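#lab-general

N.A. 3:47 PM
ok so I finally got the sequence cleaned up, no stray characters, all 147 residues accounted for. can someone with queue access submit it? mine expired

B.Y. 3:52 PM
send it over

N.A. 3:53 PM
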Amino acid sequence: MSGLDFQRRLAETGMQIPIIFVTAHGDIPMSVRALKSGAVEFLTKPFRDQDLLDAIQQALERDPHRARTTGRDPRSAGALSRIDCAGSERVMTLVVAGMLNKQIASEIGASEATVKVHRGHVMHKMQAASVVDLVRMADKLKLSPRK
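B.Y. 4:20 PM
back already:
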């Protein structure tokens, strides 16, 4: 059984536990699928030890049981209203679709530097600690990738 199949099976049974994917053979569509299905992180080998430690910390912070016992409130779905630039919202949809900065720049007809500025703006305004956070928020907001 693949990791994605296992994740799906856990969801079908109602198990809500943080999942960190570690793979040597992952691709962008696979990572987007895992993240949209609730994975905390999708790490491809080789990765830095700190990346795994950060993912574990995020998993602990997002554990539903831990959140109930600590009284920690999740971020509100109104976060998208904090993005005040249409270009940034477009960049966000392309980022969560799994596109690289270079691809986004080509898609919107801007420089890669401009895309990086918009991407940073989105991360800051959405209070996203990682692209994983951003994908999860976009999924909750039903923000669809490009059509």
